[in-house]
Every structure is written in C-alpha cells, then in structure tokens.
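Hi all, a correction to my earlier message: I attached the wrong file for Calcineurin-like phosphoesterase domain-containing protein. Here's the right sequence:
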Amino acid sequence: MHPEIETPMTRREFLRKGRNWTLLAGVGLAGADALLEGHWIELRRVRIQLPSLPTAFHGLRVVHVTDTHVGGGFFDAGDLQDVIDRVNALDPDVVCFTGDLVDDQYDRMDDIARALGTCKARYGKYAILGNHDFRQRDQVLQAFTEGGFEALVNRSVVIEAQGQELYIAGLDDFLKGKADVEKAIAGIPPDRCIVLLVHEPDLADRIAQYPIALQLSGHSHGGQVRLPFYGPILTPSMGKKYVEGLFAIGSNGFQLHVSRGIGTQTLPVRFFCRPDISVLTLESVR
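and the right structure:
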C-alpha cells in the first residue's frame, strides 16, 4: 500500500477557490440581509404643502401605513400589534391604512381586530381594501370596523376643526373591486381639501383630473427587491410608474404619496428596500 502524496495547490487553484468562497459568502450575507431587512422598519417623515388645506389643519400629523400582508412572510397579528405600538408612539392626528391588511388568507381575524382596536388617533382611523384583501373581503371589513377604523369603500368622511373641514375619501380596490372616484367624493363642496386613499398608485394620472389635493397609496412595496444603480427588479400591475415617495402630478397642485409598506409578497424578503411607516405633516400654504 503506497502512501498518498498530497499535491500542492497551485496559485491559480488557490485564487479560484478563494473567489468562489468569497462569492458564496457574499450571497449568504445578501440572503441574510434580505431576510432581516423585512423586519427593519424605517420611520419616514415627509412634509407636504397643500394649497387647499384649511389653516385649522396646518401641521396635521397623518401616519400612513400600508401592505402589512398579515399571514404572509412570517408576519402575524403579533407583528401587526408591534407596528401599531410604533404608530401610537408617534401620537398621530390621523391614521390612514391603504390596503392589503392580509396576505389573501388569515384564520385569526379576531386577533387582527384586537390589534387594530389598540390604534389611537386624534381625528380618527381610516382604511381601504387592497387586492390581497378580497379573498376575505367581508372579514377584513369586519376587522376594520371592530378595530375602530372607518372603512372607506367609495365614500368619504369629514373631519372638523375650528369650523373648518377636511375630507378623507377612499376607493374600493381597482384590480379586484369596483373603484368609483365620483361616488367616493360625491356631495363634497368643490372648495374643500380632499385626501384620497387609493391602494394602487398608478391610478394617480386618472385621479389628477378630479379636485383631489393628495392621494395616499401602497401596493408597490417600493419594489421590495431593489438593485443598486438599477432600482426595483419587479413591480406589480398598477404599481410600476409611481413606486415610492412623493410626486407632484399635473398643474393643479395634486400630489401622490406612495409608501413602501410593511409586509412582503411572494417571497418574505426585502433588499435595499426597507419597510416603512410614513409620518406626513400637512401644511397649509394659504
């Protein structure tokens, strides 16, 4: 029996193996970051000037939350409660939730309703449906109602302060429901300031023709997975043009704010696209 003779590794083999291990380590770190980033919520503060906003509402703090996708991506009602605790710590005047409360199906809607019920806002809590809410449409609407949210399905409510009015309206989901802007704002006097909740942001180009001051949307998840120097690699239908951030559209002062949302869809990961809770401070410029 002959002893095995170990052949020394050549410089080329050493460099090749080193490169492969470096690549594998990089992939592993990127994967870990993508999983962790989905739970690393960013607090985004945005000041929005609205010419039609009554002076009584100058400085109104609107907390915009969207796309929690409870039941998907390791996100459950307990995680929703954590989000609401963070919202309450912001002392909001208004809370607006712009759809996709659940990820198609969730069995413990009572837990969701209890979590929603702990949310506090000086002038109320308002919500709309997203396309992933429609498998449990009735249960989601019931959870919002039991949790003290006004579910705005093609209708509006008015907030009053010092004899002045601000309207908050909401649309049914465009992709799965029957969104009707005219029905949502019916009966609102033409000189009033209107904030419209719309799940899909790319409806903004159509909504710009109506007397709306500000549209709040989610749906896009900010792209969810973004590459440096490239941007989002995949965006959903009706969430491709306006992916995240604040946009001025048209010449009538209409603005759109798109949140990256909280949850995930398809894969429970985010990359260069942290989830966010947006704190919008509305300012009157009269």
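Sorry for the mix-up. The longest helix spans residues 11-37.
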